[in-house]
Amino acid sequence: MAEPTPRRNEPRLRPAPLLFEPAEVVADPEHFFDLESIDDPAALLGRATELALAFSAAADRAVEFQALAAAQLADPRRFDRLTAADIAERAEWTEDYAKKMVEFGRDLMRGGVEGREHVDPV
Fold this sequence. Notes:
Helices cover about 50% and strands about 0% of the residues. The chain has about 120 residues and is mainly alpha-helical. The protein is elongated.
């Protein structure tokens, strides 16, 4: 099963693999990572849980990268820095959320969120 995203000094455990689905199978709206073909409820629960944890870990990590990118784009040392409003428009966020993401990204770059669980910047 997947583990929560570790912080800087912890080894990163890989979540369950998200297997890519063939194009012809993806066209079937009832198909989802072959879960519909698993008849054993215990096996279905196990694989569905692995996928849920993997997606959650991937989403948490993606949010961290969004925050890092937002902080870098808003860096006052950049001649082409963006405002929170500009970042919000690009990312389809509200301006308040963009400001929180910039600060979250700055915290990540400073290493100020080590040891904490992923915290949604909202």
